[in-house]
Amino acid sequence: MINKDQWNEIIEALTANWFRTVLTAFGVFWGIFILVILLAAGKGLENGVKKGFGDIATNTMFMWTQTISKPYKGLPKGRRYNFKITDVPSIRQQVPGLLYISPRNQLGGFGGANNVVRGLNTGAFNVYGDFPEIIKQDPITITSGRFLNYGDIDEKRKVAIIGDGVKKELFKPDEDPIGDYIKIQGVSFMVIGTYTKKSNNGDREQGQKEIFVPFTSFSQAFNSGDRVGWMAITAEDHNSITSLKKDVIEVVKTNHTIDPDDDRAVGNFDLYEEFNKVNGLFVALKGVAYFVGTLVLLSGIIGISNIMLIVVKERTKEIGIRRALGAAPWAIRGQILLESIFLTIVSGMAGIAASTGVIYVVNAILDGMPDTNETMFANPSVDLMVVCIALLILITSGLLAGLIPAQVAIRTKPIDALRTE
Question: Which family does it belong to (predicted)?
């Protein structure tokens, strides 16, 4: 246990030359500061990039049809085909480990002709024919009313859920759209819900300008029969869609008489694979941050070790007297190590405090900016584990910095130390 005399001795030794002590401590201060700032910046970049994925289920793939590039079983290349609704139970039966399979149809969209009318107001919006599971794969926040259910699917109800952007363009601010009707390409649909969402393509406004209707109603109203435009397929948590993707595509090829080696016939986008690439990138960035920060910190530790050697040299006579009076080697070693650890921890904690202040200011600035998905930097932060690791590094560094000077101190013979002027 450290007593008052030891504390006084530590303070006296470190304050004997203030300027030298401050310069020495700055190396450790700067090392910890850089380490925490780099880790926080990496986390902020990670948060910003992942924010671009929105709330969409990342263990998901999207699949669509493309032109067949190889002849097969008498059928020519260059032909087009469509997914069928019967592909859904076929995939589910033959590929275990899938959580959701959502067939989708789509019409209209931003930049196209006006396809939705309500009174004198018109607009061009994406209209999706969906099953209820889609809200679990591409989440939206229902702001009023409800989302689709299987009653709507089974009874082919002509109902619609509209985004806040659609509501703004088709309805007056004081009008409640629930229970009112809109016409989609001349077919009336009753509004049963409104929603807001984060767009996954960075265009937040466009994410609010979508309309969801039951898949069966869509097929009936717009004469799409049993055709499916594309599918969103999500795997169970203990499986990855990347490992199941090949089996899913093989089922589709078999159902539509496509050459198993035709890699162009089925288009797909593996969100899970892309998400893992992003995760791998940030693991590498975190490793670089630790590497760079540790090197900078190491330079500060070397500085402390050097200054402690100088302090030991200056106190050679004092050490000799203490040894002559019976001070044990471990007491001399302990005193030097305590001084080294104390200087390291104080300067390191100052670095952590300064970096925390910078992170706080940056977060305050980001909080005052508009909330959009285009921001590639969000909520830079470090968790408690990083702080604990930094403290562990500081304590270890302090021991290493004082170890060599402590060994030099106890190797000095009392008689030689007393002769030193």
Answer: Belongs to the ABC-4 integral membrane protein family.
Question: How high is the pLDDT of residue 328?
Answer: 65
The per-residue pLDDT for 300 is 74
Query: Which range is least confidently modeled, 66-70, 134-138, 275-279, 329-333?
Result: 329-333
Residue 370, C-beta contacts closer than 8 angstroms, at least 6 positions apart = none
Question: β-strand 181-184 against 116-118: which pairing, if any?
Answer: antiparallel
Q: Pick the residue with more confidence: 50 or 254?
A: 254
Please give the Cα distance from 389 to 215 (Å, whole number): 53
Burial 301-337 (b: 16+ CB within 10 A, else e): bebbbebbbebbeebbebbbebbeeeeeeeebbebbb
State the pairing for strand pair 159-163/98-108. Answer: unpaired
The predicted-structure confidence for 278-303, as pLDDT tens digits, reads as follows 888 888 888 888 788 777 777 777 77
